Amino acid sequence: MLEQNNRPFVGKPVKLNYMWRDVERRANRYGIPFKSIPTYPVDPEELANRVAVVASLEGWCPVYTKAIYRTWFLENKVPGDVEDLRLLLSQLGKDSDTTIARANSQAIRDRYASETEVAKELGIFGSPTFMWGSEFFWGDDRFEDAIEWSKSHAN
């Protein structure tokens, strides 16, 4: 996001306020409590993302992703804060010291960098992105479009 100057709301208070109001409306639509605007942007060291790489390799990424977003959006805990991350990992039954050490290892840093390069080569610039062949759909509000496209273009 930094390379592409893709922090669309930073330094734009009117747009930022709209975005958070929109998030609140969407959360209400899905029955998710929205207590306050969470800290944004977060995780400058990308630790939470590297933990996601570990989680992906070990098969617990969906659980981790839901938990990290829940704690960020509903509890306003910063994903990249080491102590908040330790607590979350412990709640997930993971050894936080081992997981964070692995996330900070050169092997995981290299894997994260490599996967980021693949995403950039595919033209991905944000999350969530849904892919079907070379077609991609960005944003949670494009999920239904991605499903419809995949159904209409399935072999």
Helices and strands in order, then pairings?
Layout: H1 13-29, H2 47-58, H3 61-75, H4 82-91, H5 96-103, H6 106-122, E1 129-132, E2 135-138, H7 143-152
Antiparallel strand pairs: 1-2
Compact summary:
With 155 residues, this protein is mainly α. The chain has helices spanning 13-29, 47-58, 61-75, 82-91, 96-103, 106-122, 143-152, and strands spanning 129-132, 135-138. Strand 1 and strand 2 form a beta hairpin.
Description of the molecule:
Helix 2 crosses helix 6 (106-122). The mean pLDDT is 89. Helix content is 57%, strand content 5%. It has helices at residues 13-29, 47-58, 61-75, 82-91, 96-103, 106-122, 143-152; strands spanning 129-132, 135-138. It folds into three domains: 1-37, no CATH class; 44-122, no CATH class; 125-155. The chain has a two-stranded antiparallel sheet with strand order 1-2. A hairpin with a 2-residue loop joins strand 1 (129-132) and strand 2 (135-138). It has 155 residues and is mainly alpha-helical. It is globular, with a radius of gyration of 17 Å.
